[in-house]
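Flippase-like domain-containing protein
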Amino acid sequence: MILEKLCKEQIIFDQNKQKLNRNFKIIVNYFLGPVLFVWISVSLYNQVKQQPDLPNAWLQVKQAFYGANSWMLWLGILLMPVNWGLEAYKWYLLVNKLQPFSFSKAYESVLSGLSLAMNTPNRVGEYGGRIVYLQPQNRLKGVALTLVSSVGQLLITLVCGLVALLLMRKQIQLVQLDGNHLSGILLQVFLWSVLFFIGITALFFFRMQLLAKMLQWIPWLKEKLAFATVLDYLNNKTYYSILFYSFLRFVVFALQYVLIWQALRVNLPWWEGFWSIALIFLVMAIVPSFAIADVGIRGKVAIAIIGVFSANTLAILAGSVLVWLLNLVLPALVGSLLLLSIKIFKER
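Tokens:
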């Protein structure tokens, strides 16, 4: 009787736990994200409204599509498929260690992953969208490969961000947060924190396989981490290739920003522009965000950093929104259409 009672209580506990987890996800995805989006949008609106000569700034934004510098805007737009093509090639290199996979299929799976990522914190849903293109027995192993690609991109972002911190110390101290300039001490703490995270990320990236094997010595983790055996197929050449293409993608992404901002008449020098964008990426990599609020957070960070070089707040924000639409929203819409043709579970 006692055992039966305990079993029933455990079942009730598990059911309540699942219900709480489900409710928590609903709150996070459908309440917290939109609230954050509204709050940031109002803040950005107030910043744009305070810009001097706002009608002229609007005119410059419109002229970006057909003015003398419009080629920069269109080149930035054309770089979108290149950006995701590099990410698809990284995925193609990794998945072919597991099963035969074409580049076109890799491109489709990356876009499909992006469509699911739009509704999850820090775009974690991207994993699920990619692995549905794999054979059922390989899908869990695909999670480990997706992790390799993501961590490689993160490592490049952190390293470039650190270089930007070192090269632009004077400019960074001019950045204002809530009306206050960043202190030298705070900047120093941030710099050492980034350096620490680079060390941890690099160790995890290059020793992911060893870490998985060490954790498998823990009995209750052994079966759960069995899918990580796919990492045995990766050699140092593969890891360095992932870093190389991650860096190329970083450059393309940064170039999109610089080109579009130049077309929108943001007075941003090319060299400072590249490293300023590296700082924006660094902050975005560290700050947790929801896809719906991502554009707002990106806009606020861009205004704070690029505002050191240009007072054209409207153009800075417009460029950030345009890049967000091009690189996230548009590919996600295409990916959602591609997902319609995928059968997640095979018919028997």
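The chain has one domain: 54-339.
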